[in-house]
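Regression check, DAU case 354:
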Amino acid sequence: MKHILVTGGSGFIGTNFIHYVRTHRPDWHVVNLDALTYAGNPANHRHLENDPGYTFIHGSICDAPLLKQMFDTYQFDGVFHFAAESHVDRSIAGPEVFVNTNVTGTFRLLEAGLAHVRKHPDADFRFVHVSTDEVYGSLYPDDPAFTETTPYDPSSPYSASKAASDHFVKAWYRTYGLPVVVTNCSNNYGPFQFPEKLIPLMILNILDKKSLPVYGKGINVRDWLYVADHCDALVRAFENGENGETYNIGGGEEKTNLEVVETICDLMDDKTGNPESSSRERITFVTDRPGHDLRYAINPDKAVEKIGYKASHTFEQALSATIDWYLVNMDWVRSVQTGAYQEWIRSHYESSPS
Ligand code: NAD
Ligand code: DAU
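Current build output:
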């Protein structure tokens, strides 16, 4: 049995990853370390409460003594590092926590991993650092997609903090020989995504008959990746990747934000019996995000060739499945729309005129 540390396993991708691993790697014992910020929800794993293959620890990746104790107790074979502050708009409104969690937290985790490897030099250990395509900055419409050698050029406090964390991870490989793999992926969507991000925000605003705030002209392009494909890629990177290497993971589904929102409108009208096109009428163009990257696109060739990755979901089908998940999980939705969530929505959108 392998003991695997998943950080941030109560957030969106971490939750999906733990569910994926309990199904596809049932011989792994997963230890989820999560600080349960506004983005973390322990109820996501309620069905695993009596599962001996799952352990939850409430704590922070910034807590060095806790990390040491966890490594000593579980002798981890691998780390999947998801824990982060992840929302670009929040990083613009309040960047400091992004430095603390994404940079200092990653540093503390690297130190704990290195101390473990030094104590157990023969251990077969690997640290998978889950990063983002945003570290590469913005593309023009005709630019080639990001490869693993595209220079880093982050725009937001969030992407700067992720870029810094990537550099620390690579430095711990080059300087200390810590076995690491870095993955940089595009925009994920799927079940359990916190409704501050574009896709769930739009689904829920349609349900609640609110306006649909599209930044600027809605021409920014993202490369949408279904979260299950991402989880599959991460297991492949852990098992088939080479230490010190980066793998770019994309969905191959470039869409403008307006295209995404209009598709959600049409699917929602169809599923909920709204009059045709009625949701599109709620689209409202609002003040653009400062430093808003125009386009992200991933060239996944290296991941395809070296770790056997291939996205197996198409955007329309997986988006439809995602909407269905939100429609049948309204209890989950309402439980995460807490006072803190309402406060963010008020402070961010009510000061953002059309
Ligand atoms: P999320 O915001 O949904 O979840 C983050 C999780 O980390 C939460 O459960 C939160 O409680 C936890 N956390 C925060 N600070 C912590 C700390 N100090 N110690 C322990 N846990 C802490 O994020 P997500 O969308 O699931 O993203 C996961 C990772 O994937 C992040 O590193 C993010 O940068 C990266 N990523 C996300 C996307 C995307 O589209 N969502 C795309 C590319 C990369
Ligand atoms: O590219 C990977 C990144 O994708 C991850 O690293 C981040 O953690 C994740 O949050 C996501 O970042 P984005 O900024 O691209 O995601 P978000 O859902 O916030 O926004 C997607 C696009 O939609 C972006 O161009 C901004 C726009 N948008 C977003 C919101 C919340 C709107 O037009 N209106 C909105 O209300």
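Comparison notes: The longest strand covers residues 28-34. DSSP finds twelve helices and 13 strands in the chain. No diff flagged against the previous build.
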